[in-house]
Design a protein that fits this description.
about 140 residues, globular, five-stranded antiparallel sheet, HIT family, subunit A, about 20% strand, 2 helices
Amino acid sequence: MIDCRFCRGERPASDHKVANLGITTAYLHDDQFFPGWMVLVLNRHATELFELTADERTRMMDEVTRVATTLNVLFTPRKINYELLGNQTPHIHWHVIPRLADDPGPLDAVWAVPHAPRRLDAATLAARLGTLRAQLGA
């Protein structure tokens, strides 16, 4: 068995789950300092893109694009960042991050922008999840 925290069920908070999109599951990142920041976790274990079949890669990129399109509609960002690193959690997962006009570090990666994590209160979280689900048709 693979010792992977995502495969053990240690995924982003279940109360932040947006939708199972097919090959990935989308979650709203718990830190909303960058509003709309989402994480798409591959539903099976793989650490590298070359471990996926061509069909899986295509489907995954379609899902990343679907989420990015949704974030573009809802947040009207200047740019959307796409991060696929895996250094800390070696399991394919994409960070899809809208970068807004008032972004405090527009030239930096989100990890390089000093900030206190911004957690949404329950009502705001529920509203944001509802809006994302409706826009994604989930």
